[in-house]
## 1
Amino acid sequence: MTHDTYLWSPPPVYSVPVRGKSERFPIRRLFFVGRNYHAHAAEMGRPVDKANAQLFYFTKSPSTLVESGATVAYPPETRNYQYEMELVVAIGTAGFRVSESEANKLIYGYACGLDMTRRDLQLAAREQGRPWDLGKDLEESSIVSAIVPANGSVLHHGELAMTVNGEPRQKADLSQLIWSITEIIADLSKFYHLQPGDLIFTGTPEGVGPVVTGDRIEGHVEGVGEISLNIGPAE
Ligand code: MN
């Protein structure tokens, strides 16, 4: 029994559904790519010149995971809670220092994701050279739709778009990613032993903005699926 081993019940295994399967996809880690669309990098005041830039990442705890369709509380200690609609790559095979040409073999499938952000806290941390955790790694901030199995195939294009209360806010094409899916996997695998259950949020296009209590976000990625989120009252 649990109480013979642990003082209290250990955290659950976080997981998301897989389209067409009864088994769920158990989550290991959540990785996020920063600044991976030119127009978004520019709107954040940090334009990217790929020739002189490197991929960079941040992480969130798996406990921040929320399934599409949920209602989340407006989070504490922010006045600027923002959406970031993203393509999510689900890793299904372990890999370390994989080449770009082999990177696709790690791909289990894809999902739609929302990287919800306390933008005021993120930017304050950025300006002071501090970690982004308070702005990014907040409870209920990683929203994921059902994973669509892809069996190693790489997405090169497809519309990514989202609305708030039915009004268009972000719209882009996956062909606009500065670093491609296979470039991201190869690069990230230099730093981490990628494992089944890792999710990689691949970055957001331009048009990020705030939401308030009562708002409903709806988004889609062509060929992957749809995602939604309702913003509830603050606690
Ligand atoms: Mn993001």
## 2
Amino acid sequence: MDSMDRSMEIRMEMGEEPAGDLFDRYGEVVSRGTVLFYEGDPGQEMYIILSGKVRISKEAGGLEKVLVVLGKGEFFGEMAILNNKPRSATATVIEDCRILIIDRETFETMIRSNGEIAVRIIKKLAARLQEADNQIENLLLRDNMSRLVNHLQRKAREAGAPATGEYRMPFLPEDLASEAGILGHHLEDLLKKLRSAKMVQTGGGELTIVRMEVLERFSKYLEMKDQFCNLT
Ligand code: CMP
């Protein structure tokens, strides 16, 4: 079968459960804990997740930073193919996965022959760039409390939180620290302060912003403090 036939078959299946024979040819079952590739490895294949979860992470200054956790229907590993560079991050299976593994030739044929897939990939890359910009903005904030509050507000807003009142979100301390660019042991101190000020509550795998409008005011205060601290 040539790469055009393969790409036609695979694009039909992107993100959906493929027919048995297609899975037999391109699919793999990968168990939790498997590292699919490391940052810096050469890369000749991209991956589509049919089920399960994959963590994309980078190492900096001896710390692992989680860039994103990907799930069903999402793809990764396309960058090394598109720009002929080594893997930009490490991919680790964190929940048993069924994945399709697509070679360079088939991937390029998929993009060339199908505008819908090309648009989908461009949109995904634009969303990643936006997220990277958000992370840069967050890292430019001077102190940890500003980073945390800014990050919580943005996550809540992106998930459709109301401007006022309570909002609950899933909470895993390691993920929150990594996403907000804060060391784990600093995060607990910061959360303690926010809890005692009754701005947040944590428990049962959830973080509750008690009143969105109060967090917003605190965020403005931190911003002004940062801006005018040299004048007082
Ligand atoms: P590649 O560089 O081949 O290998 C690592 C993959 O992780 C990369 O392709 C992308 O698919 C994915 N990736 C890299 N950076 C990000 C990011 N900031 N957000 C989401 N996915 C990313």
